[in-house]
Amino acid sequence: MINQLIVVDAGPYSLSEASIAGAGQRLAEIAQALSRRYTVRVIAQPASDTVDLGAAEVVAPGEDAARAIAAADAVMFFDTPDRGRVELAVTHRKLIIGECRAPIEHMSYPSVLACADPIGEHQRFLGTYRRLLQVAHHFLCRSQVERAALLSTLCAFGRTTPIDIARSWTLDHLISTVPVGFSQRGLEAADAAEPVHMADFLWTGGIWAFFEPLMLVEAMKILRDRGVDASAAFLHATPTEDTRSTIIEVGNAIDALELGDRVHLHTKPLALSERVRYVKAAQAYVCIARPGAENETGTRLRLRDTWLHGIPTIIDPHGISGDLVASENLGVVLREPSAESLADALQQVKSGAVGRPSRRMERLYENSMTVFTDWLDEELRGG
């Protein structure tokens, strides 16, 4: 192990087994992979059920976090970081790494739109994003699409110069692509888990306003009318400020269509160790979104499940995620998403007409982070 201290700041993301979401899981698994090579401290809210972080240790926000940043050789920030800790890393002249995506989806949050000044409320996210663009020495991206968008943004911010291009035509000294994937410990945990059937088809991520969860409910009615025996579940239907109205709408639709015996809203918090048992037993994952800027520019973290478990994803064509499913033969892309086309795809899965993709070991973080850790080693050596 290299004796350098890397501090990973979880920002607002929970690392509790019972409340971790996709961004938190990516962060935790990256910390796991880094802890095989460096000393790693993760700044996060303490929890009695903190997820596996490998050899990394949790540091509480506040004075302990400040001391960790002061002692760090490098500090990593992810989406929507804590602005105060960003400034602390700047003050201590630390090597700063940022996985920062433009806060596009935040503009659709009900909590933002309901404010008296939604533009001002969104500035909280936008201001921190801009600041990280200014001060980070290196950036992580989840896909080539996100990399391309970031390249243009860095140019507009004056962060790239002719000297940078002379150093690297591809600007690899500024940006590393670490695709959405899974860690070695995540793989081992998945293999050790016993499958438990909740439903044939799982909506595995959040129920956000820019998705189309009602389409799955309507597709299940069509399957019932066709006489197809099938079940579906929304795994993460615990209401939050920004998902409550959509979850209520989905629940009302289930009741109105009398689908309570076929479609389940899992409204209780779901532990990560329990979640993996349900996703392993599913026949397909469903993720249908509306056309929009967020889906054009971001890779959906829930694709991790397909790359890890080899279970097909049924998805819309709106953006990089649909392109990945099509190019890597990961499932079914609905070219014209509708309840009818989704029902057709679900029925194909039930009939065995949709093959299971293989596990993709190139998505293992210990493999895909090599270019980034080579850069980091060189920087820490003073190169």
TrEMBL record:
This is Glycosyltransferase.
